[in-house]
Design brief:
Blueprint lengths: L4 E4 L9 H10 L5 E6 L11 H10 L5 E6 L7 H6 L4 E5 L6 H10 L3 E6 L10 H6 L2 E5 L15 H10 L4 E5 L7 H7 L3 E4 L1 H4 L4 H19 L2
Parallel strand pairs: 1-8, 2-3, 3-4, 4-5, 5-6, 6-7, 7-8
Length: 225
């Protein structure tokens, strides 16, 4: 099993102080920052794009930006996100007809490639061929497009199915994840945890980050037995 990684979702941060908020999370123990890019087409909301990511990259040297691309034409934005300092480019399987070619294009720009599935998309949409070349698989546990939604536990079996097929792959969960819902995610095999309000709104975010990480590590210890 790959190691536990906590990726706070900046959608829950104070956008007026975005660089400072990212630094606060890194100081609290976060390794990645989850950047939700929305285009108003694939999802009805608009959030941030490459110009904002570029500013964050300059303001927070060395930041690992886990870019979740909720966009209709993910092929279109690979170069812009790479030039803005993106570290991982995660696109939705529902938005492309040629995932393998897109993954190759992402790798050509020296970014890690992630593949996301929405709540109504089965895990089998990520074929063995796609999963083999991707660096990370993302199972959405809410409908993409806005923060603060209720966790959909019916999505968790997809994590277990993907973990069974890809034992060494990073598997991320995103949506409604926090101290009350982390156990089922970790037990199913997810190792990359996206949490927004549960971390950013906590009085001591470093304690929430440590707790989420410890839960994943405990679950992984059971997997490795």
């Amino acid at each position: 099993m790959p190691r536990a990684i906590i990726s706070p979702s900046v959608l829950a941060s104070d956008f007026g102080q975005l660089s400072a908020e990212c630094k606060r999370m890194i100081k609290g123990g976060a390794e990645w920052l989850h950047m939700d890019v929305m285009d108003g087409h694939f999802v009805p909301n608009i959030s941030m794009g490459a110009p904002v990511l570029s500013c964050v990259s300059k303001g927070v040297p060395g930041i690992f930006m886990d870019c979740h691309m909720m966009v209709s034409q993910p092929e279109q934005w690979v170069n812009d996100i790479a030039e803005a300092g993106g570290s991982l480019y995660c696109f939705h399987i529902e938005a492309t007809s040629d995932a393998v070619s897109l993954i190759n294009a992402i790798h050509a720009r020296k970014m890690k490639a992630g593949v996301a599935i929405s709540p109504d998309t089965p895990s089998t949409a990520i074929t063995d061929e796609i999963g083999a070349v991707a660096d990370m698989l993302l199972v959405m546990t809410v409908y993409p497009g806005r923060g603060g939604q209720k966790f959909l536990e019916r999505c968790v079996p997809k994590v277990a199915e993907l973990r069974a097929r890809f034992p060494e792959k990073d598997i991320e969960v995103d949506g409604g994840v926090g101290p009350k819902t982390i156990d089922v995610c970790a037990d199913a095999g997810s190792n990359v945890i996206v949490a927004g309000t549960a971390i950013f709104n906590a009085p001591e975010p470093e304690n929430v980050i440590a707790s989420l990480k410890a839960t994943v590590n405990t679950a992984q210890a059971r997997f490795s037995k």
